[in-house]
Amino acid sequence: MENSNKVLLFGKYDMSEVVVTDGGLAKYIDLTPTNVPHTGGKHANRWFGKSKLSIVERLINNVMRTEDYTGKKLKSYKAVSDAFDLVAERTKKNPVQILVEGLENAAPREEVTRLQFGGISVPKAVDVSPQRRLDIALRNISRGAVAASSKSKKAISVCIADELVLAAKGDMTSFAVTKKEEIERVAQSAR
Fold it and tell me: How many whole angstroms separate alpha carbon 97 and alpha carbon 18?
């Protein structure tokens, strides 16, 4: 009886049991329980407003960035919902936990910026803020999934599920993890 009044994501997944192990990202990953991750831009023009959005809604919004899904929130919502079902089926774990682990593994800690010294431009390695780390990880996961979907006959939901599972494992075949390693390798050489 107690379980019936609990708020479950997509009516299936409990977000209260999800654990964020990366202390820096913990403040910016919103795991507030919600049935339908859709706020309609309620936090749009506020400072750090996006950190108040559900992490699942941010993933859905990032999938909408590409030309096939621009403005089609219901289409990307359905794709992410189906992907979560596939992830739960494959891993036998909460797909929100898999998403959080994937974000932690795909978030770069260091990147390169350019400094001007007189007439020359010098690359310099800098630490990445937690908000930007999360933004980059979400963007790369969704870009990797959409790129994999456009190259093959696989459905976008299957590609999102593949990308999430690979990123959660820290597998180098994941687009997001590969991008992170590339960014950190360039930063390492610019120290």
Answer: 5
**What residues contact residue 3 under an 8 Å CB cut-off, 6+ apart?**
none
* Nearest Cα residue to 110 out of 183, 33, 160, 20: 183
- Please tell me the distance from the alpha carbon of residue 41 to that of residue 173, in angstroms, as a whole number: 33
- pTM exceeds 0.85 for this model: yes
C-alpha–C-alpha distance, residues 92 and 115, integer Å: 47
pLDDT mean across residues, the chain: 89
3-state secondary structure of 119: coil
Instruction: Report d(CA 161, CA 81) in Å as an integer.
Output: 10
List the one residue out of 67, 33, 27 whose CA is nearest residue 50. 27
